[in-house]
Amino acid sequence: MGLIRFIAMPTREARAFQGGGLDAYGSPPERRISDGDGVPCRHCLRHVPAGRPYLVFAYRPFPDLQPYAETGPIFLCADECPRAMESDVMPETLRASTEFLLRGYDGKDRIIYGTGSVTPKRLVCTQAHELLQRPQVVYLHLRSAKYNCYQCRIERA
Question: Which domain of life, per UniProt (predicted)?
Answer without folding.
Answer: Bacteria
